Amino acid sequence: MTASIQSRIAPFIAADVGGTHVRISLVAADGDGGAPQVLAYSKFRCSDYASLGDILAEFIASLGRHPVSVAVIASAGYPLADGTVITNNLPWPLSPRELRERFGLDAVHLINDFEAVANAVNQLGSSEVLQLCGPAQAAPGPLLVLGPGTGLGAAVWIPTGRRGVVLATEAGQAALAVGTELEMQLLQHMLGQRSHVPIEHALSGPGLLNLYQALCALRGAAPVHARPGEITAAALGGGDPLAREALEVFCGLLGSTVGDMALLYGVHGVYLAGGILPQIGRFLAGSRFRERFLNKGSMREALERVSVKLVEHGQLGVIGAASWYLGSEFVEQ
């Protein structure tokens, strides 16, 4: 048996649990700092299952002779010390203790989903990104990873030697800030329905629907679309002015919000990851995103030096969860 095989880390499960889909991989890696190697991968729709445990049961059954003892779960939401999760976007409760007991696992590790994504950015290739603005190569320094999916997630990668550390955030729950007269009217409409309008109430898949419905109310028009995907398709198809205007507002708000966060966290690069963005990449590149990103007064010159890229990698969450585990103190070789 070779040394490389002897140092191989036992296969483990890495999962990316979002509000709409769960992506799960069986992962292995060499013990000498090697990159995660995906041995099996499946994608599940949350609404088709009564619990995460049922999804894991189906995936584990498909592995056959690959026994596992460890699972690493990247989840939308805020993990608490007792193992529970504060989340607005998962369709069912998430309990690491229950999963560990049900499947006889030695350990179930839970991390924030965008903390996982941030752990994977250094493994991206040039073919997996679309440059939106700024230099092609970010200067050495902190990186922001952000994505509007079922909610809005964000994390900051901070270089500290070879691996770096990740600051998980709940930026999607911060108050939405607007910058145009139309956006102010839309926000006022939303405030008539709730006392706090978080960023993700506008910048997410459901957020696009919220913007569309508020825009219809302002225009005195009856909504004809009931799902975010329908709005996106109608906007890209060019036959629905209200759907297109809603998507334009979405892109403008996204640019402004990303610019705010770039300044707040002092980052040198931004990765927009996953969610609905890969579907609207060309639309986003031709929208007011860049204009609004740079519209920060005297800080425009600083933001012109920030590299902003759209990530096109469907397995980024599971690879990031695996990377987090492989760099942690929990790994046993």
From TrEMBL:
InterPro entries: ATPase_NBD, Bacterial_glucokinase, Glucokinase. One of its GO terms (cellular component) is cytosol. GO terms for biological process: glycolytic process. Coiled coil: none annotated. GO terms for molecular function: ATP binding; D-glucose binding; glucokinase activity. Keywords: ATP-binding, Kinase, Nucleotide-binding, Transferase. It comes from the Bacteria. Signal peptide: none annotated. It holds the Pfam family Glucokinase. Belongs to the bacterial glucokinase family. This is Glucokinase. It comes from Pseudoxanthomonas taiwanensis J19.
